[in-house]
Amino acid sequence: MDGGELESPTPDRSYTAHLDYGRVRRRTELGVEEGDVLWFVVQLECNHAPEYGSEDDWQHVARFDHHPHMDWGHDITDERLHIDLYAYDDLKVDVQKGFPEVPVNRAPAYCERFFDERYEELLAEYHERSK
């Protein structure tokens, strides 16, 4: 691609896993071609709705992504994995680096497992950042 793109492409696969139903979820989007992952986003989100059962208000908590052809994206083959950390209202405030080298095809599963194991800690840090 020439100079990159601004809008995210439509995912070939998209799914959500609730880690704490109604309160915390992990959302994954993948671009796949011939079985290979071309791009991905795996993000941890929390619901700011005032009470259970009311309209959802999901906000970013943390996000891994590999979007090598997007102006705003990252290429984990060059930069390795890192997490974008957010405060309330989807304000990106920090980046956590230092992750191991992970092949692109295995990275979405690695990121999902990371969030599944650490979502409580990441959510507590998110609430501290959002004060």
Report on the structure:
Pfam families: DUF7718. Residues 12-129 form the DUF7718 domain. InterPro entries: DUF7718. With 131 residues, the chain is of the alpha+beta class. The chain has one domain. The chain is built from two helices and six strands. It has helices at 76-79, 107-129, and strands at 13-20, 24-33, 36-47, 58-66, 83-87, 91-96. The longest helix is centred in the C-terminal third of the chain and has 23 residues, at 107-129. The protein is globular, with a radius of gyration of 15 Å. The mean pLDDT is 89.
Summarize the structure.
The chain is built from 2 helices and 6 strands, in the order ββββαββα. The chain is an alpha+beta fold.
Can you lay out the helices and strands and say which pair or pack?
Elements: E1 13-20, E2 24-33, E3 36-47, E4 58-66, H1 76-79, E5 83-87, E6 91-96, H2 107-129
Antiparallel strand pairs: 1-2, 2-3, 3-4, 4-5, 5-6
**Percent helix range:** 10-25%
Number of helices: 2
Q: How would the global form be characterised?
A: globular
Arithmetic mean pLDDT:
89
Low-confidence stretches: none
Major β-sheet, in short? 6 strands, antiparallel
Strand order of the largest sheet: 1-2-3-4-5-6
Q: From N to C, what is the helix and strand string?
A: EEEEHEEH
Total number of beta strands? 6
Q: What's the structural domain tally?
A: 1
Radius of gyration over all CA atoms, rounded = 15 Å
Judged by helices, strands and strand pairing, the structural class is alpha+beta
Give the DSSP E fraction (strand runs of 2 or more residues).
35-45%
End-to-end separation in angstroms reads 41 Å
